Inverse folding.
């Protein structure tokens, strides 16, 4: 098997150069998709026959919740790569992903509370899914805090990677909580194994929003990681050449 591409991914210089080419397209695409999806969903999609207009929060809540979980899985993978192959770029990716994932988790919790008030009559309940999402936020905060908890950067990197790997068990709990326990939270809005129950005029803008949010995540993640690369590699010849 040819591992050339895999090893290229571990090169800060290669990633910095290739991500610089992708960034303009990511910025434009994410801006267009998020604008179209949010305007369509919030202003033009029909009201739900049960929840009325309050359901429109899903155009922000669902993409945020998906990304909160997907970012953590990405961090766990990065942590495994950093521990096994000792790729410094994987460790930096884990570091850069944590604040973004925490932000999406906060957004998912806040929009969920806004949705829950008119739907359940309360801002918060210790529902299985809500509690698991709160635990996810604590995991993100723990990883961020661990970075400054050790005098040795190498020790901090290992601790963050281990916590990311251990905490990933919370992801299936979040996903299947509505099936394993009797919860107030409704079942998954989108399932790969079943036909969507949503009407196309609601589903299409939701999918557009999700695509836009994912591209927005990539945009912010690339920007943070590029800044981290410049900071860590500032004494290397190729970085000096960029600013000479």
């Amino acid at each position: 098997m040819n591992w050339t591409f895999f090893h290229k991914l571990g090169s800060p210089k290669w990633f910095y150069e290739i991500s610089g080419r992708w960034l303009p397209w990511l910025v434009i695409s994410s801006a267009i998709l998020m604008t179209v999806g949010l305007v369509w969903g919030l202003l033009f999609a029909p009201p739900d026959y049960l929840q009325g207009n309050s359901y429109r929060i899903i155009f922000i809540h669902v993409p945020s919740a998906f990304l909160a979980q997907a970012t953590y899985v990405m961090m766990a993978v990065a942590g495994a790569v950093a521990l096994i192959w000792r790729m410094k770029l994987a460790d930096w990716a884990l570091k850069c992903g944590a604040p973004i994932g925490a932000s999406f988790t906060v957004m998912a919790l806040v929009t969920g509370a806004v949705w829950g008030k008119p739907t359940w009559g309360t801002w918060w309940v210790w529902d299985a899914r809500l509690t698991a999402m709160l635990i996810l936020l604590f995991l993100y905060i723990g990883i961020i805090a661990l970075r400054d908890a050790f005098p040795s950067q190498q020790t901090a990197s290992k601790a963050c990677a281990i916590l990311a790997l251990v905490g990933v068990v919370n992801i299936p709990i979040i996903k299947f909580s509505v099936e394993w326990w009797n919860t107030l939270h409704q079942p998954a809005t989108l399932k790969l194994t079943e036909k969507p129950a949503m009407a196309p005029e609601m589903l299409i803008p939701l999918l557009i929003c999700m695509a836009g949010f994912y591209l927005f995540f990539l945009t912010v993640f690339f920007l943070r990681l590029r800044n981290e690369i410049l900071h860590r590699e500032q004494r290397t010849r190729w970085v000096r050449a960029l600013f000479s």
In short: The CA atoms of residues 15 and 21 lie 10 Å apart. The chain has one domain: 14-242. The chain is about 75% helix and 0% strand. The first helix runs from residue 4 to 9.
